[in-house]
Design brief:
alpha+beta, Immunoglobulin-like, 2 domains, five-stranded antiparallel β-sheet, about 20% helix, globular
Amino acid sequence: MRIDVAASLGMSSPAPATALLQIAVAEPIEETLTVLTAGRPADVEEIDVEGARVHRFVLATGQTTVSYTAAVQDGGSPRRVRPEEWAVALRPSRYCPSDQLEGFATTEFDRTLPRARLVPGVADWVNRRLVYTSGASRPVDTAIDTLLAGQGVCRDYAHLTVTLLRALEIPARLVAVYAPGLSPMDFHAVVEADIDGTWCVVDPTRLAPTSSLVRICSGRDAADTAFLSLFGGVAQFESMTVTATTAGPLPAPHATPFPLP
């Protein structure tokens, strides 16, 4: 099944700044990326970063617009967990301080369960524990802040799920995706966990079918997967649109962890 995605960003900058963009899908069958800054095409450089395709360019003073379209074909081989990924996905990170929740996780969950049951069980627990509330969290909130607040958005759900899985010694990471069926449409954050040596995805928000998700990038947490990062300057973010559509009807949601190509 073909899935078409698109994203557009608009911003203005009072002075030049360097931008790192992560909106390109991992494996497109076709794509276009256009960046206009101060009315001229920007010189865009693609950088290979572990788990992501990063595009770097310089914002000139004034208006900048970014337009991206891509098509992917769903399906493909599951991703095996490499030893270096396994090591990174077990460690605490900026927004996922799993070492601080080890005792809590051990009390709440049965560590003796097979991962095929434990991983969706943790995602279900997070889904029941949190209330999806737009604007309720801050960019600096960690999984512990989310746990105490009891609310958040997709990145908060993902951070808490990743943190609890790592606290249970299950390698886990955050994945940024395009999500057909998501409402309201936006970039989406889900979780991948190591189940028997394969990366399998769960969505603790339950807001979109996991089998139609389109991978953008993966990382330790949102610090690695932000769709836009600026350095050496500032910009006023003015507009953003995201779309993701399928050629046919959306598949039914998966109740079990699903390998995301």
